[in-house]
Design brief:
Blueprint lengths: L2 E6 L2 E7 L1 H12 L5 H8 L6 E6 L3 E6 L8 E4 L6 E4 L2 H6 L8 H10 L13 E2 L4 E6 L4 E6 L16 H20 L4 E4 L4 H12 L5 E7 L4 H13 L2 E6 L2 H8 L2 H10 L11 H9 L8 E3 L4 H4 L13 E3 H12 L9 H14 L8 E3 H21 L4 H5 L3 E3 L5 H8 L3 H4 L3 H10 L17 H18 L1 H11 L6 H4 L4 H7 L6 H12 L10
Parallel strand pairs: 10-11, 10-13, 11-12, 13-16
Antiparallel strand pairs: 1-2, 2-3, 3-4, 4-8, 5-6, 5-7, 8-9, 14-15
Helix pairs in contact: 1-2, 5-16, 6-7, 12-13, 12-14, 19-20
Length: 532
């Protein structure tokens, strides 16, 4: 999204996204009797995406939407003449005394891919968190904040009234109506995978008669995701293009200046850059296959928001100890590199998680429902808002507009307030998709994407059973780790070469681990220096 300027007398506003958020901030700055909670409440009524920085000679106000779809960073100046605030963390870092990276935050970003809480890698350089509204009074040198949104059930984990199916239908249709209204008549381009969420996006746009509409997929030839996407696009009658990403070109791109420029543009000094769509979109642009003034609409992040990440341990009637909650978060989110999971690093992680969730230091028992809500709260405000949604920087970097219908505020709030039993394993979502089933795209086309083609999967399954009997599970798993170089994610690993993959195969979790390592090395930080 493009940043714009709104001048209102002595008030200067830079904003991104919907104009209504900028106008709300202007009104707040004009009315000296208005208070921050009131501003937060009014911003909370805006369903679209936005980021706003408003200034006068004496005060500054900055806000981001409910999912921090466009980040804002801030730091104080030595002269105490008000904060430096803006979307570029690198510019803010150099607009004053240069400070080194903070060691605890370096460890955290290496373990997770992002820095949690309001911190960044630089001490004194902060980021606004999801839904945050922050206000500074320059002459007093003070700041205060409030939140327009918190991902915590507002009605004791129950839908307010009516049929869950009907409410979900209403939220989905309202979300896509806003996306289409934003797009106007501009072409919409959908990155299409074999999963449920991008199918929903493309299917809804077709159902509502939006045109012009295009879809694309990428990766190695005949990969399972792209093959499924092709079938979905054909069933919906949408023009589809598969962008091949040969290993040679991927390696050249990974070493290119344009990727480094993108890293500086997108990392915010707080998270590993997400660049999965970048090379395919550059390729489509170079071949003239991206219609002018296109809007990018992807399926982020239906799997999380609809309950797909709730741990099995919280699907119970029993109580859950908060220690188990913390360990579930660590097991899922802090294991990019096994060698970094030392006692010292994990102790800091546990303290950070407790602080982010405002939990008491002494462990206590809570209901499984509360544990599930806390788990989702943590992932929402940390991984989703700081790493997943940051993938939108790809489109900003390329000068393209975008919309996130599955992060629309109404859709997000619906799932926040839905009973955990309807979210666990995406129960309600999958039922709704099966019943809606537009043109049969959820029943006639499979959605099981395996790491290997069907024949190879069958052979490997038999080999895995035999090898476990002969060598044991642990040794079998170690051997099979090396085969990942050739699976559906192999195109990512091949960027780094087999030697590097072989060297680290038993230590890293997934391709994000390798990308995080490379990004840290770009900033002059080695993983070995973070093993404490």
């Amino acid at each position: 999204m493009k940043w714009r300027t709104l001048e209102a007398g002595k008030i200067s506003v830079q904003y991104c996204g919907t104009l209504s958020a900028a106008e709300t901030v202007v009104k707040f700055l004009r009315e000296t009797s208005s208070d921050l909670p009131t501003l937060a409440r009014k911003l909370g009524e805006i369903p679209e995406h936005y980021a706003v920085v408003g200034r006068t000679s004496t005060v500054t106000c900055a806000v981001v939407d409910h999912i921090r779809s466009v980040p804002i960073f801030w730091r104080y100046t030595e002269r105490n003449s008000g904060p430096l605030v803006g979307p570029d963390a690198h510019i803010l870092r150099t607009s004053g005394p240069m400070k080194p990276f903070a060691s605890n935050e370096l460890c955290e970003v290496a373990m997770t891919g992002y820095v949690t809480g309001p911190n960044t890698l630089i001490s004194g350089l902060s980021q606004l968190e999801a839904g945050e509204v922050r206000y500074w009074q320059h002459h007093l040198g003070t700041t205060e904040n409030a939140f327009s949104y918190r991902h915590w059930p507002s009605n004791e984990f129950q839908l307010s009234s009516g049929s869950e199916y009907e409410q979900l239908s209403g939220a989905i249709n309202a979300s896509f109506a806003r996306t289409m209204n934003f797009a106007g008549t501009r072409p919409i381009l959908v990155p299409l995978s074999g999963g449920l969420d991008s199918r929903l996006v493309l299917g809804k746009l077709v159902e509502h008669g939006y045109s012009p509409l295009h879809a694309f997929s990428y990766g190695p030839p005949n990969n399972p995701d792209a093959e499924t996407a092709r079938l979905v696009a054909e069933r919906l009658g949408v023009q589809w293009r598969h962008v091949q990403t040969p290993t040679k070109r991927c390696r050249a791109f990974f070493d290119s200046d344009i990727l480094k420029r993108y890293w500086d543009f997108s990392d915010g000094l707080c998270c590993t850059p997400n660049h999965q769509d970048l090379l395919p979109l550059i390729t489509l642009t170079e071949t003239g296959e991206v219609p002018e003034d296109s809007i990018l609409v992807n399926g982020q992040s239906g799997d999380f928001i609809t309950g797909g990440h709730i741990p099995d341990a919280f699907n119970t009637e029993a109580t859950v100890n908060t220690n188990l909650l913390i360990e579930e978060i660590i097991a899922k989110h802090y294991g990019l590199w096994k060698n970094l999971m030392t006692s010292k690093n994990l102790l800091h992680a546990r303290k950070k998680i407790s602080a982010c969730l405002d939990m008491p230091e002494t462990p206590n028992d809570i209901s499984a429902t509360q544990a599930a809500a806390l788990y989702e709260l943590w992932e929402y405000k940390e991984r989703q808002a700081k790493y997943v949604v940051n993938g939108q920087r790809i489109y900003d970097f390329l000068g393209m507009d975008w919309s996130l219908p599955l992060w629309d505020r109404e859709f997000t709030t619906f799932w926040r307030d839905t009973n955990v039993s309807h979210k666990y394993k995406q129960s309600l979502y999958c039922t709704w998709l099966q019943q809606w089933n537009y043109r049969g795209i959820f029943t006639d086309i499979g959605n099981t994407i395996t790491a290997w083609p069907r024949v190879a999967s069958s052979i490997l399954a038999c080999a895995a059973i035999a090898m476990r009997l002969v060598t044991g599970r642990k040794r079998r798993d170690q051997i099979f780790r090396y085969l990942n170089y050739f699976d559906r994610f192999g195109d990512h690993y091949k960027i780094f070469g087999f030697h590097s993959f072989w060297k680290h195969a038993q230590n890293f979790r997934n391709p994000t681990s390798m990308y995080t390592k490379a990004w840290l090395e770009y900033h002059g930080v080695s993983l070995d220096s973070l093993v404490h």
